Sequence to fold (164 residues):
Amino acid sequence: MAIRKVEIERFSVTSSKPFEAVVAALKASVGHPDMVEFANVTKTARTFAELQSAVQRGLGRTGLMLFTEFDLGAILRKETGLDRPKIVRLVIGNPLIMKEMAKHVPDAGSYAPVTILVDERPDGVHLTYDRMASLLAPYGNADALAVARDLDSKIENLLRESAA
Fold:
């Protein structure tokens, strides 16, 4: 049995825009493949080139896609009967980026695709992301870290743009 201590760097941006506008901006920047069809196409791809093509078709302008989303606020709102809190967890990524990290550090598959949390608070809408490079740093693999840093840059730019 092994336990690895991981220190996480959390990137956060606060927006004065309405919650719905921030979420819409995020979603407009990433691809939205039909995930059932995407899974079938990637599973039945006979070559890596076919797989790459399927992934590329599913990506948005940021080179990322939305895998799924969870409306965590809906569960909380059911309990209170109020229209708040508003909290959404978006699972976003790119399987080709994940592959590049996982071939050097298999545990990267535990962290990719990544989570972006969007939640409304009294001071604004918070967009939060745990940096992939911080999650992979304990593994000490320079190649995986280079890919992780590039992914962090993509995600952080997406959050800044969506918040502006």
Remarks:
- The chain has one domain: 10-163.
